[in-house]
């Protein structure tokens, strides 16, 4: 029974139509998304230009960065095609994090913070007087 409940938890609960925005760079976090079907495009504003940095599809997760460090979204995510996702609300995601093995949790947090720090350095370099 537990396996069925776990599967039901990641059944799609939100449909985002093609070209609709999930969230924009700079938005406040509202949870984490698991792609059940479809495809999304991830972009960042780099040197005042919107630059696609990747695509994600079925089985991928996005939105975790802002949920881990409670900062604004680091990128914009747009549906490339109609996309069904499971949207984990903040309290659901927090519960999942707390259930991780402490060692795996520390690895996960380290990786997420490393990505955030790279984004911050990139953003700083784009500002007037930055190194870039």
Describe the overall structure.
- By secondary structure, this protein is α+β, with helices and mostly antiparallel strands.
- The chain has four helices and eight strands; from the N terminus they run H-E-E-E-E-E-E-H-E-E-H-H.
- The strands form two sheets. Strands 1-8-3-6 form a four-stranded antiparallel β-sheet. It has a four-stranded antiparallel β-sheet with strand order 2-7-4-5, covered by helices on one side.
Secondary structure topology:
Elements: H1 2-9, E1 14-16, E2 21-23, E3 32-37, E4 39-46, E5 49-57, E6 61-62, H2 64-69, E7 76-79, E8 83-88, H3 90-98, H4 102-126
Antiparallel strand pairs: 1-8, 2-7, 3-6, 3-8, 4-5, 4-7
Q: How would you concisely characterize the structure shown here?
A:
The chain has helices at 2-9, 64-69, 90-98, 102-126, and strands spanning 14-16, 21-23, 32-37, 39-46, 49-57, 61-62, 76-79, 83-88.
Task: List the keywords.
132 residues; alpha+beta; Jelly Rolls; 4-stranded antiparallel sheet; flat
């Amino acid at each position: 029974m537990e396996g069925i409940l776990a599967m039901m938890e990641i059944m799609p609960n939100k449909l985002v139509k093609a070209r609709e925005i999930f969230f924009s760079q700079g938005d406040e976090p509202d949870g984490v998304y698991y792609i059940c079907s479809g495809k999304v495009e991830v972009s960042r504003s780099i040197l005042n230009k919107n630059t696609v940095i990747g695509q994600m599809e079925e089985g991928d997760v996005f939105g975790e960065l802002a949920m881990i460090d409670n900062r604004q979204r680091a990128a914009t995510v747009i549906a490339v095609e109609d996309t069904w996702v499971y949207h984990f609300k903040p309290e659901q995601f927090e519960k999942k994090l707390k259930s991780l093995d402490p060692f795996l949790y520390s690895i996960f947090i380290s990786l997420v913070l490393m990505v955030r720090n790279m984004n911050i350095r990139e953003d700083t370099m784009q500002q007037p007087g930055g190194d870039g």
